[in-house]
Specification:
Structural class: alpha/beta
Largest sheet: 7 strands, mixed
Strand order of the largest sheet: 9-8-7-10-11-13-12
Number of helices: 9
Oligomer: single chain
CATH superfamily of the largest domain: Vaccinia Virus protein VP39
CATH class of the largest domain: Alpha Beta
Length: about 260
């Protein structure tokens, strides 16, 4: 059922035009953006969402994504007073607090796409690893060794907890700190490097190149207005294997993943 169909009985026709067309689900949390003109109707909107059995808490987005940890504020407008949940995706479970760590459920299919490319025996580096969704999903489905680097202490806490929760802690080495400082100290060369930081990840390509082998595959996430612009951002010294659009950011800007090798 569409969100606006749920809201027909509590909003006027004019208010429905301002209402959000959908919402994100992370675990049992429903997350949505509400127009300022509908602030007086927040609780009624939440009440309708809570009628859906799989939703226990309704959160309203507040402000913009902040700081290097890519987190934002949320307001509980209905249901249980919590911002922590357990999210299930492709057979993996992830515990997280949405206000303390970055996590996008919209990238679930993308994580599966990359997992399907991985071969047993690979050594993999995940930069900006967050709570561990890329590393954990790959480790759960392949016989690999993974190094994950994350700068947010809360992300590290949940990453370690989630690795144990999914019984893959023996396959993953977790490091807290800045990618530029940590990666050179690993003294490893990797078969695959995943860079799931859409904003400015291309500025870390020099770090990735130093720990790449001859045929290392890089998965770089990037914001751009077109595939052409996305590819141009990474320069000419690469051989592009694929460029996949994997989610919108604004009306004109999308998130892309470029799979490539250095020349």
């Amino acid at each position: 059922m569409k969100l606006k169909d749920l809201l027909k009985n509590v909003l006027t026709g004019k208010e429905l035009e301002l209402a959000p067309s959908g919402f994100d689900m992370i675990g049992d949390l429903a997350i949505l953006k509400i127009n300022e003109e509908l602030e007086g109707k927040e609780k009624k909107i939440a009440e309708q969402l809570l009628k859906l059995k799989h939703i226990k808490t309704v959160l309203k987005k507040e402000g913009k994504v902040e700081n290097e940890f890519r987190v934002r504020k949320y307001k509980v407008i209905g249901g249980e007073n919590t911002k922590e949940t357990l999210h299930t995706e492709y057979g993996c479970r992830y515990k997280l607090n949405v206000e303390k760590v970055y996590f996008s459920p919209r990238l679930g299919n993308e994580r599966e796409r990359i997992t399907n490319q991985v071969k047993d025996g690979e050594k993999i580096l995940v930069m900006f690893a967050g709570i561990g969704p890329y590393a954990i999903q790959i480790a759960k489905n392949r016989e690999v060794k993974i190094w994950g680097v994350e700068i947010n202490p809360e992300g590290i806490k949940y990453f370690k907890e989630n690795a144990k929760l999914n019984k893959v802690e023996n396959k993953i080495k977790i490091f807290e700190g800045d990618v530029r400082e940590i990666v050179p100290k690993l003294k490893e060369k990797f078969d695959r490097i995943i860079m799931p930081l859409p904003k400015d990840a291309e500025t870390f390509l020099d770090v990735a190149k130093k720990v790449s082998k001859k045929n290392t595959i890089i998965h770089l996430y990037i914001f751009a207005d077109s595939k052409k612009e996305a590819i141009e951002k990474i320069g000419e010294n690469v051989r592009v294997l694929n460029c996949v659009e994997c989610g919108g950011y604004s009306k004109i800007t999308s998130r892309y993943c470029i799979d490539f090798r250095f020349k």
